[in-house]
Amino acid sequence: MALRFDVLVIGGGLAGQSAALRLAKTHKVGLISKRSLEESASSRAQGGIAAVLDSQDSIEAHIRDTITAGAFLNSPEATRFVIENGRRAIEWLIEQGVPFTREEGGYHLTREGGHSARRIIHVADATGMAVQDTLTNKVRQEPNITVLEDHIAIDLITGDKLGLAAKRCYGAYALDTVSGEVVTIGAPHTLIATGGAGKVYLYTTSPDTSTGDGIAMAWRAGCRVANMEFIQFHPTCLYHPQAKSFLISEAVRGEGGLLKLPDGTRFMPEHDSRAELAPRDVVARAIDFEMKKRGLDCVYLDISHKPAEFLQEHFPNILRRCLEFGIDITRQPIPVVPAAHYTCGGIVTDLHARTNIPGLYAAGEASCTGLHGANRLASNSLLECLVFSEAAVNDILAQPAMSLPDLPEWDASRVSDPDEEIVISHNWDELRRFMWDYVGIVRTTKRLQRAQHRIRLLTREIDEYYSNFRVSHDLIELRNLVVTADLIVRCALQRRESRGLHFSRDYPGMLPTPENTVLRRHFPRPL
Fold first, then answer.
1. How far apart are CA 180 and CA 151, in angstroms?
2. Strands 182-186 and 169-176
3. Half-sphere exposure of residue 266, counting CA atoms within 13 Å on the CB side?
4. Is the pTM of this model over 0.85?
5. SS3 for 318?
6. What angle do CA 21, 27, 181 make, to 5 degrees?
7. Which ranges in the chain are annotated with CATH 1.20.58.100?
8. What pLDDT is recorded for position 86?
9. What is the CATH number of domain 2-229+344-397?
10. Could you tell me the pLDDT band of residue 258, with boundaries at 50, 70 and 90?
11. Is 292 exposed, middle or buried (CB count within 10 Å of its CB: 0-12, 13-18, 19+)?
């Protein structure tokens, strides 16, 4: 089956949906979602969206906080671009009907780690869900948007693959996971908004959809990828065997939550003068240090000193979810551990969200815009989704109309049904475990080399499997995960320092000049 659109958007989170809605006024848009539109990393965002909305705050202060948290690796141009467009992005969401939490005199703003002011606009403690629900309702009603749920992109269609002189992107192949059919989707413009790669780690706050698909596809197509070593580990994930990585929002610490050892002793003041309000990389390393030093399974986040009414008003979902596991946060501390949370690196883009392949754009967690540097400042992620998806839209709208070449159908003539699908699940488990053990919060060169050796073995096995058997949802994700893992390890081995989220025992100091780790794929020359 073949489909044609003016624009193909791969990914149904905030970046993808906001771009689709903006484009739908003038363009026919195809929107691919791996599962339902409601299931994305964006919908899990609890804290909110950072923007300068208070007269006591300033653009310069938000820029300064972002660059400080990012260990000075941030692009000054990208940082200013995003933050200066923050208020307008929030106003657009308000126009769409997002019900941000109000207080007397306006919207309630909270504060999170690394921020010098209250600038986080939110919907209680479920901002992402409220934003996603609002936009999803609009997307489903928009006649110019064709939503392809239960479709997973396999690979991009490029001029290189078609043997054309024009080395641009013409769409993608996608698997309909319900029918099992591979669909050829042509479009003059393609936006990758597939999110990050949290599922490459054993413990993560990311949804099951975060398997690095867009990053891996772009890399295979020839895109530059940068700073993949910077994987943000959220410091406070609920520690409970049935919790399945439930996130305890940064805002809990922003509103006075204290990190404690099992005996009730605070430990963050010994690690950083900002204590619980230090950036995420600092807090995650401090928790990791205390757990390893003392042989602890977890530490505790205590906000029980706040009135119960306050907690019910500000953290209703966290309070309810913890109660389901027998934890009353109005009277008890919350057991927490760090977990992989956000991919700060990704596909390199410019300020128009363009990659180095014409016709191909990237926005959101799959991209590396330069905003986050070596560590993302809390609540800057949804802001980046909004600003760069709009930048991509503006660039697409400025492009002249173009026709598509003939696109070949997916060729499945030389493959057969898989005979041992258990191989996929075993490889998946092995990959996630050694990435957690060897490429986690604290790294060494020897651990990274061990991970790289295992990745090479897995890659050969997965490539052979992919070449001989029909594609499946799990196989596509596994193939993308191993590529993403390889990119993370390669970047980490190239960085001979400790900066932001990348901490190496072999190179504990920080070099005087910050530099990005940029990977370029070298294709073999034709004979």
1. 10
2. antiparallel
3. 15
4. yes
5. helix
6. 85
7. 422-507
8. 97
9. 3.50.50.60
10. very high
11. exposed
**What does the alpha-carbon distance between residue 426 and residue 428 come to, in Å, rounded to a whole number?**
5
Percent of the chain at pLDDT above 70?
98
Q: Which long-range contacts (CB under 8 A, 24 or more apart) does 460-464 make?
A: 461/423, 461/427, 462/427
Write the burial class of residue 486 (CB in 10 Å: 0-12 exposed, 13-18 middle, 19+ buried): buried
Q: In this structure, what DSSP letter does residue 55 have?
A: T
d(CA 67, CA 332): 35
Mind listing the pLDDT tens digit for each residue in 391-427? Answer: 999 999 999 999 999 999 998 777 777 666 777 888 9
- Helix/strand/coil for 356: coil
Nearest C-alpha neighbor of 257 from the set 231, 289, 283: 283
Residue type, 5: F
Question: How many Cβ atoms from other residues are within 10 Å of residue 167's Cβ?
Answer: 15
pLDDT at 49 over 90: yes
335 CB-near residues (< 8 Å, 6+ apart): 238, 239, 240, 297, 298, 299, 300, 327
In this predicted structure, the answer to whether residue 527 has a pLDDT above a threshold of 50 is no
Q: How confident is the prediction for the chain on average, in pLDDT?
A: 93
Question: Which 3 state secondary structure label does DSSP give 112?
Answer: coil
Given a cut of 70, whether residue 345 has pLDDT beyond it is: yes
Can you tell me the mean pLDDT for 183-208? 93
Q: 416 vs 180, 409, 421, 472, 473, CA distance in Å?
A: 13, 17, 13, 12, 16
Which tokens in the block code for residue 434?
């050694």
Asked if 30 contacts 185 with a C-beta cutoff of 8 angstroms, the reply is yes
Tens digits of per-residue pLDDT, 308-324?
Answer: 999 999 999 999 999 99
Query: How confident is the model at residue 418, as a pLDDT?
Result: 66
The answer on pLDDT for 150 being more than 50 is yes
What's the chain's Rg over C-alpha atoms? Answer: 22
Pick the CATH number of 235-340 from 3.40.50.1000, 1.20.1250.20, 2.60.120.620, 3.90.700.10: 3.90.700.10
DSSP 400: P
Check residues 304 and 124 and name the one with the higher pLDDT: 304
**Fold of the domain spanning 422-507:** Methane Monooxygenase Hydroxylase; Chain G, domain 1 (1.20.58)
Catalytic-role residue among 22, 80, 280, 495? 280
376 among known catalytic residues: no
